[in-house]
Amino acid sequence: FVRGLQGTGIFGIGRLYAPGAIYTSGDYALIQYNRIDHSGYNGILPTCNHGEIRNNLIDHSLLNRSDGGGIYTAGASAGRVFDGNIILNTVGYPEATNGSSTITHGIYLDINSSYVTVSNNTVSGSTDAGLFLSQGTDHNSVTGNLFYDNASTQLTMSDFTGSSTVDHNSVVGNIFLAKSASQTAMKLQSLLNNISTFFSTVDQNIYARPVADDATILAIQPSEYGSKQ
């Protein structure tokens, strides 16, 4: 396990990968009570089974690269838990990715992430989504989180290839709060007209966009394009 890390330095600008703070592939890993400040790439990157990422403060990730997250994972697992973390200011550095990518997310479940529990986290200040579920993400649980003032949207679920669908995710008891009119509370995107299958359960969430509450949730798929409350 890793406990008590107090900050990281910014070092290494890479076209492909710049250094992150903590990486683990060891099963049953516990990463807890760390303060991760100013990391070049992902704040924490677990690829383990049954790993637990708990009670960490992650601030200013992706300062040397974009396309990542304060907490980033990908691929199938036999259970990963991201619980009770505070993730702030995931800002990105597009100059390190051909100057074109500004994709940064607070928590990023990338391609084929499955059986991940995302619970009781607070995420704010990402340049794209507070939480991003990419293509092939299935059977994940998102419960009791606060996503606030993330620059594009608070939650994105996106099947953008049409080959590996987002499927059967539980999203219950969260707060998705957009601060400005340029933000949405949630964005759902599909190439297959299958947004209805993104969820196994979606209930007891708060979706709020107080400054312009006529466009709180954006749904994009071939049969419809537009914003919905």
Describe this structure in words.
There is one protein chain. This protein is mainly beta and 229 residues long. The chain is built from no helices and 24 strands. An eight-stranded parallel sheet has the order 1-3-6-9-12-15-18-21, with no helix packed on it. The chain has a seven-stranded parallel sheet with strand order 4-7-10-13-16-19-22, with no helix packed on it. A seven-stranded mixed sheet has the order 8-11-14-17-20-23-24, with no helix packed on it. The termini are far apart.
Short description:
The termini are far apart.
Helix/sheet category: mainly beta
Rg is: 16 Å
User: Termini, distance in Å?
Assistant: 43 Å
Give the strand line-up of the largest sheet.
Answer: 1-3-6-9-12-15-18-21
Portion of residues within helices: under 10%
The low-pLDDT segments are 11-17, 225-229
Q: SSE string, helix = H, strand = E?
A: EEEEEEEEEEEEEEEEEEEEEEEE
Strand content: 35-45%
Number of helices: 0
Total DSSP E strands: 24
Shape descriptor reads globular
Q: Could you tell me the mean pLDDT?
A: 86
Largest sheet: 8 strands, parallel
